[in-house]
Amino acid sequence: MRIIRGVSTLSVAALIGCASTQGSDEPAPPAPARETVRISATGATTTGMSSMEVSSTPNVGVVTLAAPIDRVWTELVAVYAALGIETSTVDRTNKIIGNTSLKTRRRLGTVNLTKYIDCGSTQGAPSAESYEVLVTIHSQLKSSTPNNTTVTTTFQSMGRPVSVSSEYRTCASTGALEKSIGDLLRTRLSM
Fold it and tell me: Which one of 1, 18, 57, 107 has the fewest CB atoms closer than 10 angstroms to its CB?
């Protein structure tokens, strides 16, 4: 039943992703992670194994702030540091900051990963508490007017158990990290 729920969730996410459009001047989003799901069936008339490939769609959070892009950039760099997000990409020219392969366990900064992601659960506990998690997160700034800046944050994560040899599996965003980035930016810009 858990596999069906996961596939349904991914299907809905894929449909939502297909409904959005991008302008030609925006960079293309990263390719969705692909995951193979194996389904075994045993019953009165059916026995066997089948597999299917699914892909996840990154979660995207967008916030528009009434502030110049250079000021928002300065505060965004500070927000990433405050949240404990190590950055491997800091592109001041294109106003992109983030990390494509941040490995973490249990926490991101001082916050439990279970606040930010859902990797399912095993033995009654959220898997994100015990998984090694690979996070991909980027925020990009765009400005349509001198005093308005749009912050687009793209977040994706995958996890795997550390106690057994296993492949990474897609985890879902709760939306909390994307919201925290926007909220912290608003707070810092109002000071």
Answer: 1
